[in-house]
Amino acid sequence: MDLNQIFKTDHPVIGVVHLLPLPTAPRWGGSLKAVIDRAEQEATALASGGVDGIIVENFFDAPFAKDCVDPAVVSTMSLVVERLKHLVTLPIGVNVLRNDARSAMAIATCTQAQFIRVNVLTGVMATDQGLIEGQAHELLRYRRELGSDVKIFADVLVKHARPLGSPNLTTAVQETIERGLADAVILSGWATGSPPSLEDLELATAAANGTPVFIGSGADWENISTLIQAADGAIVSSSLKRRGRIEQPIDPIRVSQFVEAMRRSLVAKTQTNSVSSVAVSSFSE
Q: What's the rounded Cα separation, in Å, for the pair 179 and 73?
């Protein structure tokens, strides 16, 4: 997958719009207007801060259904994504938590969004929703049935979960790509706000063999210079919120700080790679 074709950069920053509780969620507030207004404010803040893409999640619907969400959730998310597409010019993705990839694919296809995030595409994970099994075979066939070109960004050994058995990270990445047909893979820490280790990112990138690898949690302007050395992009939420608190709205100043830190890191990465290439060339001569 060509990231530049979608995001206009090879190393995108994707900001997350956490929707307020939706209809049927335990904390649903009863106002669809409040949900839409907050989503529009978040998207505007992310865009003004310079992110390269946005992903919309029903984050505050916890506790989540493990697979199929209520039709009211699908309807509301479709409406919100459509509104955001007319508000910002950025690529938009969809994540229907906890793992309703089929609904995410339907929403993204119908609203002409560009990608979805799937927490469990392959394998089996023990989560607080119970055992979640990957449904790659159904999702890929559904995408073909829809005639869709929406890309699938798949978590590998997703956060807030434990795999059954002790799978090797390298094998898990390879199977997600080769057998699950993911277009990109995502590596997170153990929970929201927790970053993956540099070592795990390096292993994942080596195993992905050219398929994009995203940092899926815990990236901030202090650690991004290290983490981005072994990744292609970052999906960011917690560190962009006011005071870094997940329940707070997006702070455009913190967005700008993160984006600037990311770009400085990429310049340094490019310069380092250039120096290394020159050194290798000189040694060969």
A: 30
